[in-house]
From TrEMBL:
Domain of life: Bacteria
Biological process, per Gene Ontology: NAD+ biosynthetic process
Entry similarity comment: Belongs to the NadD family.
Record-linked CDD domains: NMNAT
Keyword DNA repair: no
Protein name: Probable nicotinate-nucleotide adenylyltransferase
Enzyme type, top EC level: transferase
Catalytic activity: nicotinate beta-D-ribonucleotide + ATP + H(+) = deamido-NAD(+) + diphosphate
Claim: Cell division is one of the keywords in the record: no
Purpose: Catalyzes the reversible adenylation of nicotinate mononucleotide (NaMN) to nicotinic acid adenine dinucleotide (NaAD).
Record Pfam families: CTP_transf_like (PF01467)
Amino acid sequence: MSTAPVGVLGGTFDPVHNGHLRLAMEMAVALELAHVRLVPCARPPHRGAPTASPGQRSKWIRVAVSDEPRLRLDDRELLRDGPSYTVDTLASMRAEMPDTPLCLIMGRDVFAKLPQWHEWERIFDSAHIVLIDRPGIDCELDGAAAEALTQRQTDSHEALHRTLCGHIYTYMPPPLVISASYIRELLQRGESPRYLLPTAVLDDIMDAGVYQSQSATAASQ
């Protein structure tokens, strides 16, 4: 293929933070991607609804990536009715970019549950999977997930460039442990999560009072 792959990083982004952004940048550089699309989920089928609204979450991503051309917001799931199924998102991207390899980025813990996803095997008809392995995270794969890895794994990221879809490539990024749940906990306790997420995103969260408890909000005023 002559076209560089496009990375796809989905999630609730509730809120987007530096862990998300740094991982996306690592992928763009290490895998020589054209860019990485951050795709906020509207209605996650396998977890509770996000605290922040779709509009707030898309705004934060847009602000966070505004000065980085290798990272982009893709809000198609927020604009689509019904549950946010990854297979549908990738199929719509494939229709728009028929000659561009797509690389769906996910952690090993997420990949272990992939067989529970809606029409999960069709994902490989549209995209490769980049499997993120982090030191110290022990997540054994079994059943259909382990079988898919055995059948589709490649040791070369160049294979992601040569074909449109179907491979699994494992990548171990440098450790950077930041979680959206920890940021929400800090805000709910009235503590500062500064330097864990972009300053412009934190300022907007504080102005809107999205995650703060009433007592924490009063204490900060």
